[in-house]
Design a protein that fits this description.
Blueprint (H helix, E strand, L loop, with lengths): L1 H138 L3 H49 L10 E5 L4 H7 L4 H10 L2 E3 L6 E5 L3 H17 L4 H30 L6 H9 L4 E2 L2 E2 H19 L3 H10 L14 H12 L3 H9 L9 H14 L9 H16 L4 E7 L4 E6 L6 H18 L7 E6 L9
Parallel strand pairs: 7-8
Antiparallel strand pairs: 1-3, 2-3, 4-5, 6-7
Helix pairs in contact: 2-8, 4-6, 5-6, 6-7, 6-8, 8-9, 8-12, 9-11, 10-11, 11-12
């Protein structure tokens, strides 16, 4: 029993040992196979790696050869360029050396020449001094006196030459400008034909009978005093039959007095209270008439948009005169003429008309404000009209300012045309004679004038000069000097022509 068990156990153990040995042997065989496979793969990978390494090495060697060839070529090229630069630098250095040597030689030559020039200059100065001494002995004049004489002669020659040139230029300019201005002014004058009305500073009111004079005077003169006080006008009641004269330099007051007096004469009730009432109503009527006259003037010349203040001042010119010419009618005419001149010159016609209409507006208040009517008018226009061209035309139309624009010349020309019409203006005989005498006195005050005559109502003066004292060029200078003296010392309408006559006569007798 025990033996069987031992046999079974021994068989089991032997079976286990044999099974384990068989497993070990099988596993060992499998591992050997795996090892052989791995060795084959390693051998193949190593062979491939060696082949790849050989290929890469060959490629690298080829690239290295190419790089070496390129580097050698570039090296040779750079070396060639450096060699060329070195050769050029060597050539330039040699050229600079040659130039420096030439400059040194030139400096030495110049230094030698300067020494020679200094020596020659010293000899020339010595010779010049000897010649000056000899010339002074011969002429009897010092060098300073001779220099002064030479300068005076040169100055005279230059002055004569300048005068001759100026005369030629003036003649050319006058010829050109006269043609153009004559065309423009003649066209304006022909297109603007207007009536000429001369007015005075007095007004005459007719009376139905001489008995009315007593009623106007009133008891102890109370009526005439009341009328003069209310109107500010002088009533002249003299021996003139059936007429009363009103005298005043204020045309508006004179017109109020004339209308009020005419109403009182028609009404027949003349006493201080009635006089004040009629004068007050007449003032209102005249104010309305003034405003209407200003509007009509602006409408007549085609100048819209004026401020009411300017229209009122413009209407006051209806009762204002200048040298007997109605200022409102004159302003309307100047506006038309200025527009025509502006058309020919290519300027703004509307601005020219506005400036022409307002150019004398300062005369509406010139008795109340200090200054010339041009400056006063410019200040008034500047307040109510923002156009600087209109202000310039008003301020410059008498050429009183330092500078004159095109608007000043346009308005000045139109103003002169309107005032210079025959019969447009008049002045008293006394002032006329004084102006003629003052004009001749100015001409006679210059040296070399023999006689002078004011002709053409003072619009031209002809001057006879002594030919032995004044030459042709001197006659031109004399005319210019007289013009400046007349412009600076006389007031006159329009322009004055100055003509200087120089005549040389040779008289002999046959015996």
């Amino acid at each position: 029993m025990v033996l069987n068990v031992f046999v079974y156990f021994s068989s089991f153990v032997i079976g286990l040992v044999l099974g384990g040995l068989a497993v070990f042997l099988i596993r060992q065989l499998f591992m050997n196979r795996q090892i052989r496979l791995t060795q084959r793969k390693a051998v193949r990978a190593l062979a491939e790696a060696r082949n790849e390494a050989k290929k890469i090495l060959n490629d690298a060697k080829g690239e290295a050869d190419k790089t070496k060839v390129a580097s050698d070529a570039e090296y040779k090229e750079r070396r060639s360029e450096l060699q060329n630069l070195e050769n050029r630098l060597t050539q330039k250095t040699e050229s600079v050396d040659r130039k420096l040597e030439a400059l040194e030689n030139r400096d030495r030559n110049l230094a030698n020449k300067e020494k020679g020039i200094d020596t020659l200059r010293a000899h020339l100065e010595e010779a010049r001094s000897k010649q000056l001494q000899q010339l002074e002995l011969i002429s009897g004049m010092s060098s300073a006196e001779a220099k002064q004489s030479l300068l005076e002669n040169i100055e005279i020659e230059l002055r004569d030459e300048a005068t001759r040139r100026i005369r030629e230029w003036e003649a050319e300019l006058k010829e050109e400008t006269n043609k153009k201005t004559q065309e423009i002014l003649c066209l304006a004058i022909q297109r603007a034909a207007s009536e000429i009305v001369s007015e005075t500073t007095v007004a005459v009111v007719p009376l139905p009978s001489d008995e009315m004079k007593g009623r106007l005077i009133g008891r102890e003169g109370r009526n005439i005093r009341a009328l003069e006080q209310a109107t500010g006008v002088d009533l002249i009641i003299d021996d003139t039959p059936e007429a009363v004269t009103l005298s005043s330099f204020d045309p508006v007051r004179r017109e109020i007095a004339r209308l009020a007096l005419s109403k009182l004469i028609l009404d027949g009730r003349i006493h201080p209270a009635r006089i004040e009432e009629v004068v007050a109503k007449t003032k209102e009527e005249v104010d309305a008439t003034i405003y209407t006259a200003g509007e009509q003037a602006a409408y007549q010349v085609g100048v819209p948009g004026l401020r009411p203040e300017l229209i009122k001042l413009l209407g006051r010119l209806k009762y204002r005169t200048s040298y007997g010419q109605n200022v409102l009618a004159h302003s309307i005419e100047v506006s038309h003429l200025a527009g025509m001149i502006a058309t020919e010159l290519g300027a703004n016609v509307a601005l020219a008309k506005r400036a022409g209409l307002l150019h004398d507006i300062g005369k509406a208040v010139d008795r109340e404000v200090e200054g010339t009517h041009a400056a006063i008018g410019a200040d008034l226009v500047k307040q109510w009209d923002k156009a600087p061209e209109v202000v310039q035309g008003t301020a410059e139309h008498h050429l009183e300012t330092e500078t004159t624009s095109i608007w000043g010349y346009i308005i000045s020309a139109a103003d002169a045309i309107s005032g210079a019409r025959p019969g447009a203006r008049r002045e008293s005989l006394e002032s006329y004679l004084k102006r003629l005498k003052a004009l001749e006195d100015i001409a006679n005050s210059f040296k070399g004038v023999e006689k002078s005559y004011a002709i053409q109502a003072g619009r031209e003066i002809r001057i006879l000069v002594k030919p032995e004292e004044i030459d042709d060029l001197g006659a031109m200078r004399l005319a210019r000097d007289i013009v400046k003296q007349v412009e600076g010392s006389l007031d006159y309408p329009g322009q004055i022509k100055v003509t200087v006559l120089r005549e040389t006569r040779a008289v002999d007798y046959a015996k």
